[in-house]
Amino acid sequence: MNKLGILTSGGDAPGMNAAIRAVVIAAQQKNIETMGIKGGYQGLIDRNIDRLTPFNVEGIADKGGTILKTSRCLEFMKEEGRKKAVRVLKEFGITLLVVIGGDGSFKGAEKLHHLGINVISIPGTIDNDFAYTDYSIGFDTALNTILDSISKIKDTDFSHDKTTIIEVMGRYCGDLATYSALAGEGEIISIPERKLDFTTICSQVHSKIASGKQDNLIIITEKMYDIEELKKYIEERLQISVRTSVLGFIQRGGSPSAFDRILASKMGVKAVELLTEGHSGLAVGIKENKLISIEFGNVNNILSDSYEKFRLLDTFSTFNKGDQVLS
């Protein structure tokens, strides 16, 4: 019987468990034994590997996080660490591998592919920062978690006529900020792909207040600003009280949405199919509601199609152009 290894790496994302479940069940149907690698690439190097059966993955699809745990592994970044990982895979008789994670996890999978391991990757990251796929596992759940928080913040903002700056995750991708702002009626949006300076943000807030709207939401992607400096700047220029809310890791947890469970299940089955068909070095994705696979080397070479995102931003920002730059 062939053996298939599966690991989750990098930041956890809701839906990873559904993908694990799908891989185990699909492998079992093809008479392939699944070995769960706990703790990502570090767990692989440390031989933290146990058998997974369909019984082991019952009742996990609705759970957030990952039953296989996850980590970031400095040792795997070095050539000797990767060679050790290959030796461990061979020691356990694992000839096929599925890696679920984000950009760093994909790079690790590509390294293993070049070392002769048959590997397929599945995108699992709330950031949705892969250009080759419309959605990554976890994005939809995180988006709805943000929307729930925004809804609550809007209630109290309205009651007190307050402006709030909300910082969401996303790293270098503005999808979470953009779509949470559009769905949550955020007035001012600043993302890495289209970053607003302090003066522009302040001008837009001033314009909204002048029009009679006292409660306003400013939604920004993490790591772009010092949020307290932005708060202080607006308060000093406009003489208003501003609140800040950094949503943090609440965005990663929670039961995955139906969309993420279904997407993860489809991708898990697809990964097993690709491996049993003799493919390796591919990433599974979804485009125009159809499952696709693409070579690792092309994952980051495809330019992100930001047209739709910017078109939406431009449409809604017509209400938020602001006054002349405040002096």
Overall pLDDT level: 92
Structural class: alpha/beta
SSE arrangement, N to C? EHEHEHEHEHEHEHEHEHEEHH
Strand content: 15-25%
Count of individual helical segments: 11
- Low-confidence residue ranges: 321-327
Strand order of the largest sheet: 3-2-1-4-5-10-11
Describe the structure.
This protein is 42% helix and 19% strand. It has 327 residues and is of the alpha/beta class. It has a seven-stranded mixed sheet, sandwiched between helices. A four-stranded parallel sheet has the order 7-8-6-9, sandwiched between helices. Helix 1 runs parallel beside helix 9, helix 5 packs across helix 6 and helix 7 packs across helix 8 (227-238). The longest helix has 22 residues, at 139-160. Belongs to the phosphofructokinase type A (PFKA) family. ATP-dependent PFK group I subfamily. Prokaryotic clade 'B1' sub-subfamily.
Topology of helices and strands:
Layout: E1 3-8, H1 16-29, E2 33-37, H2 40-45, E3 49-52, H3 79-91, E4 94-101, H4 103-114, E5 118-123, H5 139-160, E6 163-168, H6 175-184, E7 188-190, H7 198-210, E8 216-221, H8 227-238, E9 242-246, H9 258-276, E10 282-287, E11 290-295, H10 296-299, H11 307-317
Parallel strand pairs: 1-2, 1-4, 4-5, 5-10, 6-8, 6-9, 7-8
Antiparallel strand pairs: 2-3, 10-11
Helix pairs in contact: 1-9, 5-6, 7-8
